[in-house]
Amino acid sequence: MLTATSTHLSLLARLSDARDRTAWREFHERYGALIAGFARRRGLQPADCDDVVQDVLLSLSKALPQFRYDSKKGTFRAYLKAATLRAISHRAQGRPAMLSLADSVSDPPDEHAADEVWEYEWRQYHLRQAMRVVDAEFNEVDRQAFQRYALESANPHDAAGALSISVEHVYQVKSRIVRRIAELIEQQIQDEG
Predict the structure, then answer these.
(1) Are the CB atoms for 144 and 138 separated by under 8 Å?
(2) Which tens digits make up the pLDDT trace of 131-155?
(3) Closest CA relative to residue 129, chosen from 187, 193, 50
(4) According to the CATH classification, is domain 1-108 in 3.30.1330.30?
(5) What residue spans define the domains of the chain?
(6) What is the pTM of this model?
(7) What distance lies between CA 126 and its chain's CA centroid?
(8) 63-100 pLDDT, tens digit each
(9) Please, which residues have CB within 8 angstroms of residue 137's CB and are 6 or more apart in sequence?
(10) How far is residue 23's CA from residue 101's CA, in Å, rounded to a whole number?
(11) Strand, coil or helix: 175
């Protein structure tokens, strides 16, 4: 069985083959919203955010053929942040961004100011990943109860009545899903290395 870490490292290895469209599509599904969300929070317009995602993908496609993961040299997360900051900076200056994996160890000029925004987007990324698992593991009624009560702050009695379930079930499903999300996010963080 593959762990999330080996799957993550396997994906990075597969990305070294620029022709592996499945790997690039998977990477985009995993990280595209993170990169675009960070760019949006840094003040870019939606079209520019999409361009930043493409710039980061292009940068990766050029850097990954020589890539060998070494946790002592830094994390992929740090590289992705640096590549995204570089793409945002270059996009704002009107030129394409390229960043080698070696460049990621030196901080772009505004990296420290962006830490809080990056951390927020990274937490949202983890939450989106966890919610995909929740969507697969919990039934529709449970997900709707969680959505209404936990996310939309609906009255638990109203949520229960709308879904024809007991109030106790609403409380229980919220507790189970919150616990599962916490477990998933903790595992994701451990898998990042």
Answers:
(1) no
(2) 999 999 999 999 999 999 999 999 9
(3) 187
(4) no
(5) 1-108
(6) 0.68
(7) 6
(8) 877 766 666 777 778 888 888 999 998 887 764 444 44
(9) 180
(10) 19
(11) helix
